[in-house]
TrEMBL record:
Pfam families: Amidohydro_2. Keywords: Decarboxylase, Lyase, Signal. Residues 1-19 form the signal peptide. It comes from Arachis hypogaea. The keyword Signal applies. This is Amidohydrolase-related domain-containing protein. Belongs to the metallo-dependent hydrolases superfamily. One of its GO terms (molecular function) is carboxy-lyase activity. Residues 56-331 form the Amidohydrolase-related domain. SUPFAM superfamilies: Metallo-dependent hydrolases.
Length: 337
C-alpha cells in the first residue's frame, strides 16, 4: 500500500504560459515520490518533503510595460529587463524551483502594490519581503506594520542607502523598525552593496541591542573571494558575525560576488567557510532574478550551486538546507504572529 508524500505548503506547480524571453518552456514528466505508509509517520513525511523543497530566497518582480499602466514605476527607475511574474514562473518551472521570496524592487520603491498583487495571486508559491522606508517623519514604521499584518509580508529589507543623507540604520527610525521587526517575528534582510565594512558596526549594534530580531545578510554581504589582506579581514569579520545566533547569510546573486564566469567555482572556498562558521541551517541560496538571467540564465544559476557545493565537499544534507530547507523553516516559523 503506497501513498503520495504530501508536498510542503509552499509548493504549488502552476500551469504556465510561454514567453519569448530567455527561458525555454519545458514540461518534463515528474515522477511521483512514493513511500510505504507503514515505514514513516505523517510528521516524518512532512519533514522529509520540506527538506526537498527548492526555495529561491532572493528575487524581484516588477510590472511589465503593459502592467505599468496599473502599477507604475517609481520615477527614474524604469526597468531595462523583463521582470514580470509570468516570466518568473516560467523560469522557475524550467529550473525546478518550487517557491520563492520576492524582494520589493527599487523599480517600484515604496509602492508595494505590484508585489502584493503577485503574493495574493500565488499565496502558496511566494512569500514577500517589503522595503523599509526610513523617512525622518517615521511614517515608514506604520507602512511596515501594515504590510506585515494586512498583506502578509514575512521579511523586511533594510537598504542603508535609502536612509536620509548622513543618517545610519542605527538612528531612531532604524532602531524602531528593527525592534518592531523582532516583535512581529519578521527577519530583517540587509543589503551592504557598497561593502560590509561600511555597515558592520551598525549591524553589530542592532544585533546586540535587539537580539530577538532575525538578520539576513544579502549576497554574502557583498564579500568577494579575498585577494588582499584588507579583503580577508572584512571576510573574517563576516564569519565572526556567526557569533550572533540570529544571523543568517544568503548565498545569492553569485554573479555579483564571484570573480569568475559561470559556474562561479571560485566561491567554493567562501561557501565552505560560511557553512563551517554559520552552519548550513543558517545559509540560503538566492538567484537575484531577473538580473541573473542575462548573466548566466536562471536554471544555470541554480545548477551552479550544486557544482560549487560539490567542489566545497559539502554533504547532501548541507545542500538541502542551502537550497530550500533553511528558508522554508525560517519564513514559516517567523511569519507574523
Amino acid at each position: 500500500m503506497v501513498a503520495l508524500l504530501r508536498l510542503n505548503t509552499l509548493v504549488s506547480l502552476s500551469g504556465l504560459c510561454p514567453t519569448r524571453h530567455y527561458c525555454y518552456y519545458s514540461r518534463k514528466p515528474r515522477l511521483p515520490f512514493r513511500i510505504r505508509m507503514a515505514s514513516i509517520t505523517e510528521t516524518e513525511a512532512e519533514t522529509a518533503s520540506a527538506s526537498k523543497v527548492i526555495l529561491d530566497s532572493h528575487l524581484h518582480v516588477w510590472a511589465s510595460p503593459h502592467e505599468a499602466a496599473t502599477f507604475p514605476y517609481h520615477p527614474g527607475q524604469e526597468p531595462t529587463l523583463a521582470g514580470h511574474a509570468d516570466f518568473l514562473l516560467q523560469c522557475m518551472e524550467e529550473a525546478g524551483v518550487d517557491s520563492a521570496l520576492i524582494v520589493q524592487p527599487i523599480n517600484h520603491k515604496f509602492d508595494h502594490n505590484y508585489v502584493t498583487s503577485v503574493l495574493k495571486k500565488y499565496p502558496t508559491k511566494f512569500v514577500g519581503c517589503c522595503l523599509a522606508n526610513p523617512a525622518d517623519d517615521g511614517s515608514g514604521l506604520k507602512q511596515f506594520e501594515d504590510l506585515v499584518l494586512k498583506d502578509g509580508y514575512r521579511v523586511v529589507r533594510f537598504n542603508p542607502y535609502l536612509w536620509p543623507s548622513g543618517k545610519k540604520m542605527t538612528n531612531e527610525v532604524g532602531k524602531a523598525m528593527f525592534q518592531k521587526a523582532g516583535e512581529l517575528k519578521v527577519p530583517v534582510s540587509i543589503m551592504c552593496m557598497k561593502g560590509l565594512d561600511l555597515h558592520i558596526s551598525e549591524i553589530e549594534q542592532l544585533c546586540t541591542e535587539f537580539p530577538s530580531t532575525i538578520v539576513i545578510l544579502d549576497h554574502l554581504a557583498f564579500c568577494k573571494p579575498p585577494l588582499t589582506d584588507q579583503e580577508q579581514l572584512i571576510f573574517s569579520r563576516l564569519l565572526n558575525l556567526s557569533r550572533f545566533p540570529q544571523m543568517y547569510v544568503k548565498f545569492s546573486a553569485l554573479f555579483r560576488v564571484s570573480r569568475e564566469k559561470h559556474p562561479y567555482l571560485d566561491l567554493s572556498t567562501l561557501l565552505s567557510q560560511i557553512v563551517s562558521s554559520f552552519g548550513a541551517n543558517r545559509v540560503m541560496w538566492g538567484s537575484d532574478f531577473p538580473f541573473v538571467v542575462p548573466e548566466c540564465g536562471y536554471k544555470e544559476a541554480k545548477e551552479a550551486v550544486n557544482l560549487i557545493a560539490n567542489k566545497a565537499s559539502l554533504s547532501p544534507s548541507d545542500l538541502e538546507w542551502i537550497m530550500g530547507k533553511t528558508a522554508t523553516q525560517l519564513f514559516q516559523s517567523h511569519s507574523a504572529s
